[in-house]
Design brief:
Blueprint: H1 6-19, E1 24-30, H2 42-45, E2 48-57, E3 65-71, H3 73-81, E4 90-92, H4 93-105, H5 116-135, E5 139-144, H6 154-166, E6 175-179, E7 182-183, E8 188-189, H7 192-203, E9 210-215, H8 221-231, E10 238-242, H9 250-256, H10 259-266, H11 277-288, E11 291-299, H12 309-321, E12 324-332, H13 333-338, E13 351-354, H14 363-376, E14 380-383, H15 385-398, E15 405-406, E16 416-420, E17 435-443, H16 448-453, E18 457-464, E19 466-468, H17 470-477, E20 481-486, E21 493-498, E22 504-507, H18 522-537
Parallel strand pairs: 1-4, 1-5, 6-9, 9-10, 11-12, 11-13, 13-14, 14-22, 15-16
Antiparallel strand pairs: 2-3, 7-8, 16-19, 17-18, 17-20, 20-21, 21-22
Helix pairs in contact: 1-3, 1-9, 4-5, 5-6, 12-18, 14-15
The structure holds glutamine (GLN).
Length: about 550
């Protein structure tokens, strides 16, 4: 089922191969009919991840869709595997069906009845093989989303069955991730859900080679033996995946249970000694950090916190690097709008981060939070929407432009200090039409941003329609605003900050997508460092 950490499991298995110096790539299959998750509500679906590359998905000649917005599991893959993954690796039902239907119209299947089997399943296998051919990894991980037994996931499981039949036995291994609940009343792990989902798989002609069991703690040998017996796998192929304080520890937990060697044997790979030292060091940094830092994220949250998973991770990577654990508080900014006094709670934090977002709910409270940071010298980082709202706050406070706003929030504002990018004014279609993917950011020397990156040109990832309007920013320069980065045409403001002692930075891009546990994002690192200093002075 969703939310049990198939993504972390997939990424961790990939890491086992990397420990052995094999190259790895990962595919994620999402059974929904959206072409990409860009139009999904992050509150329901979790974060939308943005890749460095933008893929021109061409279901038939002459029709193109730009894809860079993909499933949040790719963030997990990139963080664990330390590599950028191509957006074509996110296969959705939307893409698969669109391709098959448009190919039918183009006459590709003349004379044939077009059906789920074989046409949809063929398209699925083609997409998987396409990645294998183009990327040539030693191991290709394919995560099938959804739940065994769901109607939506059926064609994928059928495609996997065919795939395994078409390839030699040693070429594929099937890992099934199940949940093993513990009933409070009896206090023991129950294997029935696992038995049932394996039965369902077997009914579809799929026998798992390995069963990974999500549970609160490690499974006893007894329970492992039971799962082995009922699910037709050897006991050493039943693997515990317990709740962990630090998810990055999972590959090591798998390694300790012999999963790496076991998979290599299944896949007929020459046995190699795993090199885990470097990863162990990273994990111990997370687990043994001695300091603490508290950061407030005001916004319109009734959301699941997965909606900002890359931001959580980027903050924790930076904190771990600085020997600290980060405590993140999601504050409801709508409360600040209704009752200004409630903003006093912001005084409990060492830093304020304004998150990306869309629409107008909770926005006034976010602007008030930026103003609070200005007045109280609290370290502040604004990301994308957060940077735009920081600029709105600046225009109101420093330039006296009362009612200044983004036209996304208030289309009739007297001072549209944040407005649509010119090329966005013509666009009405919503899917894949924002300014997306990796772009060069040209950084001004002598700024806080330059202090963080120590480079003039970096590539960061974008996902936006609106931008900070240059004329207002230029006017702001006389009042202490610093434009610290532009895009390479000099047209789009990529970052702003304040000149005085306050550490307030806003970036139009999303540095969190490139942060890695062993290589934190430079600007997140600078921000958390500032928060720690502020904390020690308080
Ligand atoms: N809604 C804003 C825009 O489209 C910000 C988007 C974001 O935060 N990713 O520009």
């Amino acid at each position: 089922m969703s939310g049990i950490g198939k993504g972390v499991t997939t990424a961790s298995i990939g890491k086992l191969f990397q420990f052995r110096d094999y190259t790895v790539d990962a595919i994620k299959i999402d059974p929904y009919l959206n072409v990409d998750p860009g139009t999904l509500n992050p509150i329901e679906h979790g974060e939308v991840f943005v890749t460095e590359e933008v893929w021109e998905f061409e279901p038939v000649k002459g029709m193109k869709f730009r894809i860079s917005e993909i499933d949040q599991d790719f963030g997990t893959y990139e963080r664990f595997l330390g590599k950028n993954i191509h957006p074509r690796n996110n296969i959705t039902s939307g893409q698969v069906y669109l391709s098959v239907i448009l190919k039918e119209r183009a006459g590709e299947f003349l004379g044939k009845t077009v059906q789920i089997i074989p046409h949809i399943t063929d398209e699925i296998k083609r997409r998987i093989r396409q990645v294998a051919e183009e990327e040539q990894p030693d191991i290709l991980m394919v995560e099938v989303g959804g739940t065994v037994g769901d109607i939506e996931a059926m064609p994928y499981l059928e495609a996997i069955r065919q795939f395994r039949l078409e390839e030699p036995r040693w070429a594929t291994a099937l890992v099934h991730v199940t949940v093993v609940p513990r009933l409070k009343t009896v206090g023991e792990h129950k294997t029935k859900p696992t038995q049932h989902s394996v039965k369902l798989l077997q009914g579809m002609g799929l026998q798992p080679d390995v069963i990974v069991c999500r549970s609160d703690t490690f499974l006893s040998d007894n329970i492992k033996r039971k799962i082995s017996l009922f699910c037709n796998v050897p006991p050493e192929a039943v693997i515990s995946n317990p709740d962990l304080e630090c998810v990055y520890e999972l590959p090591l937990i798998f390694e300790r249970q012999g999963l790496g060697d076991y998979l290599c044997k299944l896949l007929n790979l020459e046995p190699r000694k795993p090199y885990t030292e470097k990863w162990k060091k990273v994990v111990s940094r997370f687990k043994n950090a001695r300091r603490k830092v508290r950061i407030a994220l005001p916004g319109k949250y009734t959301a699941i916190h997965d909606s900002y998973i890359s931001i959580n991770e980027a903050l924790s990577h930076a904190a771990a690097y600085l020997d600290a654990k980060v405590e993140i508080s999601w504050l409801d900014s709508e409360k600040f709008e209704k009752d200004k006094k409630s903003m006093e709670t912001l005084s409990e934090y060492d830093g304020i981060l304004l998150t990306p977002g869309f629409g107008s709910r909770g926005v006034e409270g976010m602007i008030l939070s930026a103003i609070y940071a200005m007045k109280n010298d609290v370290p502040f980082l604004g990301i994308c929407f957060g940077a735009q709202l920081f600029f709105v706050a600046f225009c109101r406070e420093y330039l006296g432009l009362e009612g200044a706003n983004s036209t996304e929030v208030d289309p009739n504002t007297k001072f549209p200090v944040v407005d649509l990018l010119p090329e966005q004014k013509r666009i009405t279609a919503k899917g894949g039409t924002m300014r997306l993917g990796g772009h060069e950011v040209i950084i001004e020397e002598g700024t806080r941003l330059y202090d963080a990156y120590k480079r003039r040109v970096v590539i960061e990832r974008f996902r936006h329609r609106y931008h900070i309007i240059r004329e207002f920013a230029k006017r702001g320069e006389e009042y202490g605003l610093v434009i610290s980065a532009y895009d390479k045409t000099g047209r789009i403001i990529n970052a702003i900050e304040l000149e005085d002692a306050k550490w307030m930075v806003g970036v139009q891009f999303h540095p969190e997508f490139k942060s890695r546990p062993d290589a934190p994002s430079p600007i997140y690192l600078a921000f958390v460092k500032e928060c720690l200093e502020y904390r020690s002075k308080r």
